[in-house]
């Protein structure tokens, strides 16, 4: 297919295909706050492993600066260069591919 979804559109489609709740957008301010609180949470989780659950564990899992920059990009991954230089075109669209993924997981569930 010719789908070139954004990160957000891809994750929404993936959640729908798996009957999961749609991911909610996270504001830039919330991501920055999580980034500021991430280092103390990592230190606390390392020094006191019993604290690694709950709020401390959640903050420790906050994406780092590079990850936040990657996810904040308004990127579209266009396949036209592959078509023009290699003669390759995708044969399966996003919806069909995700449906196939779901069917495969239902027949061979991942533990």
What does this structure look like?
- With 111 residues, the chain is an all-alpha fold.
- The protein is built from six helices and no strands.
- It has helices at 7-17, 28-47, 54-60, 65-72, 80-86, 94-107.
- Helix 1 runs parallel beside helix 6 and helix 2 (28-47) crosses helix 3.
Major β-sheet profile: none
What percent of residues are in strands? under 5%
Number of DSSP E strands: 0
Helix content: 55-70%
Query: What sort of overall outline do the alpha carbons produce when their principal axes are compared?
Result: extended
Radius of gyration: 19 Å
Number of helical regions: 6
Global structural class: mainly alpha
Detail the poorly predicted runs.
Answer: none
Mean pLDDT: 77
N→C terminal distance: 30 Å
Element pattern in H and E: HHHHHH
Say what oligomer this is. Answer: single chain
Topology:
Layout: H1 7-17, H2 28-47, H3 54-60, H4 65-72, H5 80-86, H6 94-107
Helix pairs in contact: 1-6, 2-3
Summarize the structure.
The protein has 111 residues and is mainly alpha-helical.
Essential attributes:
111 residues; mainly alpha; extended
